[in-house]
Write a structure and sequence with these properties.
The protein is an alpha/beta fold. It contains 8 helices and 7 strands; from the N terminus they run E-H-E-H-E-H-E-H-E-E-H-E-H-H-H. Helix 1 packs parallel to helix 2 and helix 1 packs antiparallel against helix 7. It holds the Pfam family CofC.
């Protein structure tokens, strides 16, 4: 595991966990608009921006990325980020419910408050995340629903270890609320960046005129992707 020099939960700060699936499998819903190579590049760039935001956010003491992708791991090694491998079965395939199993493993044994932040939030900055963490610190369990209201972009726990159960996947917002007793933090980030994940071509088009992270903006300006983005009316080159 890549450890964070000088960081840790001993100071009472937040541990933030960012799950990143193998990039060859990432963003499949963008397939009707982007080829695999562009989807991979965009997913890696968004994850890089999210990780850098988490590292830069006041109150965050440790950041972990859960991934089995070698490119993502290589990028994480350049940052003060811990790497947690995805659990796999005997054949080397993702095991059972891979996302929640990986998150459960990454959360296990973490003292202090812990949160999960998804890797596809290109508009998220340290200021927005700090506001969300301030709101989350008031509740044993809280979430940020995605902009559609069905999914979850962030989940936080400040209570006992046994109550820290990730419920990501289809319909996760309702499950976090009904089964986990989470409090929704809908208004914690007035900009809405904390809930605007990018899953579909429509989400990419919605970035027009909005400020995104430096890595994401650079990918959207590459010739292969910018031509497709331009034809779809996308001009997401502003850097937050």
């Amino acid at each position: 595991m890549n450890t964070v020099s000088g960081h840790g939960a001993a100071d009472g700060g937040w541990t933030i966990i960012v799950p990143v699936k193998a990039l060859d499998r990432a963003k499949s819903r963008l397939a009707r608009a982007l080829p695999a190579s562009d989807r991979r590049a965009l997913a890696l760039a968004m994850a890089a921006d999210v990780l850098r935001t988490c590292v830069a956010t006041p109150g965050v003491s440790r950041v972990r990325v859960v991934t089995s992708d070698p490119d993502m791991a290589a990028l994480a090694r350049l940052l003060p980020v811990e790497i947690v491998p995805e659990p796999v079965d005997a054949a080397g395939r993702p095991d059972g419910d891979p996302l929640n199993a990986a998150l459960t493993g990454a959360i296990h044994g973490v003292p202090g408050p812990v949160g999960v932040v998804t890797a596809d939030l290109p508009e998220l900055g340290a200021r927005q995340l700090a506001r969300v963490l301030t709101a989350a610190s008031r509740h044993p369990h809280s979430i940020v629903p995605d902009h559609r209201g069905a999914g979850t972009t962030m989940a936080f726990w400040t209570g006992p270890a046994g109550a820290r159960v990730p419920r990501f996947g289809p319909g996760s917002a309702a499950r976090h609320l009904s089964e986990g007793g989470a409090v929704p933090l809908d208004g914690a980030d007035p900009s809405g960046a904390a809930g605007r994940d990018v899953d579909t071509p429509e989400d990419v088009r919605a970035l027009t005129g909005r400020a995104v992270g430096e890595a994401t903006a650079a990918v959207l300006r590459t010739p292969s992707l910018s031509q497709r983005a331009h034809s779809a009316g996308v001009s997401a080159t502003m850097v937050r």
